[in-house]
Structure formats: C-alpha cells, structure tokens
Amino acid sequence: MPELPDVEVFRRYLNTTSLHARIEKVETRSLNILYGIQPWELKRAMEGHFIESTRRHGKYLFAGLDSGRWIVLHFGMTGYLKYFKEMEKEPPYSRLLITFFNHYHLAYVCQRQLGKVGIVKDALTFVTEKRLGPDALEINFQTFKDILEKRRGSIKSTLMNQRIIAGIGNIYSDEILFQSGIYPLTKADQLSEEMLKMLFLQINYVLKTAIKGRARHFPDSYLIHYRYKNGKCPHCGKIVEQIKVSGRTAYYCSICQIKS
DNA sequence: AGTACCACCTGACGGC
DNA sequence: TGCCGTCAGGTGGTAC
C-alpha cells in the first residue's frame, strides 16, 4: 500500500488529528520497527513535546517536533496510522502507541514490521544521507529527462528506484506506465521525447489523482482494479499480462502499452 | 550500472 | 483438515 499517495494521505491525517497535541506517553510495542534508536531514546525525544509540522519526501513521512528534532516514519508494505480515543479501538499490529495529554492515541500500525520509525535532526539531512532522488511530485521535466536519458535499465525499475525518483513503487509504476501507454521493459534511455513528456505528465496526474481519492478510490479507467490473474484491460478488454520486472510482479496490457 | 537473489516479517491462499 | 510452498504494494545487502 504505502507509496507516495498513501504516505501523503497519512501526512494529512497526521495534520488533522495530531498537530500541536502534547505527547504524554510513547510505548514501543515492537523493537523491529525502530530505526537505529532505543525505546527510551524515542520516549525521551517525544514525551512532553508536540508535532508542529509535517513533511513528506517520497515514501517517507517526517513529523517536526517543537524541540527541532524530527520523527521519521516509513511504512514498509503494511504500515498505516490510526487515531482513536478508546483503547478498545486500538488496531491489531499496533507497533508504536503515542498517547496525547488530551487522552487520544495515535498508533503506528505495521503488520509485517517492515516499516521503520526513528528520530533525526532534520528531514533534509535524512533525505541526503539516504541518497533519495527528488520527490516524484517535485521534480521538473528537465531534471526528469536528464536522469532518464542516462538510464539503461527498464523504465519500470527506474521509476521504482528511490535513488532516482522518490515515491513510486510497484503499483503506481504499473499505473503510470499503463496510463502513458508504455511497455514496462522499455529501456529508459530509449524513450522518445514525446514518450518522456507523456510519462512526466502521467506521473504527476496519476499520483495526484490517487491522493484525491485518498489512495483508495480510483477512476474506472485505471489498471489498478485489474491487477490480478485474468484481469481485463479497462481500455481494450484484453487479459492483462503478468511478468516479473526486477523481482516484482508487473501487470500491463500488451495492446495498449507499446514496445518502443 | 543493472540485475538476481536473499533477508527482514506476517498472513493469506492454493495445491496436495 | 492440515501441512507446505509461494506470494504480497517496502528497503537493503551481496555477488556477479
């Protein structure tokens, strides 16, 4: 689930639920999700403080504390945030529980524990150290073009490479390529100027459309509804193809997505 | 530079 | 029914 649109939805959720609420208590329920930090350090960094702003870069969410330090959250494959009041409403697989002085709770939920939570001194430094590429919604066409023209790998794996462009994963790379009419194994440096323009446009459009639908509702014309065996292309009705691209399952339509 | 494979985790699903 | 292999939208490391 958590690619750029999902994380952006989480960010807005954090804004509307938890901003400026003073933190009373922080409980780490699973050590696996901590990012180079001990539970007591997390407690000390957060308790008595509050979140005053949020940021996102690619699939990473940052929550800026009044102390100047930042909480960094990554959601792995199964992570999300849940705000609630009654403890009976705490969801299963809650790995980190924040309790505010107003008696509400915010849970970082992550069933498979592939996500991570940590404290960093600032978001930009973290992004630099991780060597993440520009955020997929911030990049400009010239940069995009310059990067892709030097890439010899497949366009799908290039789009999913966080060090090239941050925020796009398996689901949205499939969707972007489908909406652009590009075959996923096309080499990035083989794309025509016209294709690059279309791709750039669709990255922006698909991600923004997903955010608008809160990463849950999508137009009928989207491939996302048909990413399963024997799923039919929403454009032409042909059964979608399923292939492996750098270890991930890619779906595409062999009629609508041209090999160039 | 690019890819293949493994690891980290847990749960769902299909085949036998 | 039960066991087992495989797979799932994440990243990171190694080897080639």
Count of helical regions: 7
Using the CA coordinates, give the radius of gyration.
20 Å
The secondary structure category is alpha+beta
Uncertain segments are none
Distance between the termini: 30 Å
How would you sum up the global shape? elongated
- Helix coverage percent of residues? 25-40%
Rounded mean pLDDT score: 96
- Secondary-structure element series: HEHEEEEEEEHHHHHEE
Strand order of the biggest β-sheet: 1-6-7-5
Q: Which range does the strand content fall in?
A: 15-25%
Oligomer: single chain
Main β sheet profile: 4 strands, antiparallel
Q: How many E-type strands?
A: 10
Q: Can you describe this structure in just a few lines?
A:
By secondary structure, the protein is of the alpha+beta class. The protein has helices at residues 4-18, 39-46, 123-129, 141-148, 155-160, 170-180, 193-212, and strands at residues 23-28, 51-57, 60-65, 70-74, 79-84, 94-100, 105-110, 116-120, 241-245, 248-252. The protein binds a DNA duplex (16 and 16 nucleotides) through residues 1-3, 6, 32, 59, 74-79, 93, 110-116, 150-154, 157, 162, 169-172, 174, 227, 246-249.
List the helices and strands and how they pair.
Layout: H1 4-18, E1 23-28, H2 39-46, E2 51-57, E3 60-65, E4 70-74, E5 79-84, E6 94-100, E7 105-110, E8 116-120, H3 123-129, H4 141-148, H5 155-160, H6 170-180, H7 193-212, E9 241-245, E10 248-252
Antiparallel strand pairs: 1-6, 2-3, 3-4, 4-8, 5-7, 6-7, 9-10
The structure holds a DNA duplex (16 and 16 nucleotides).
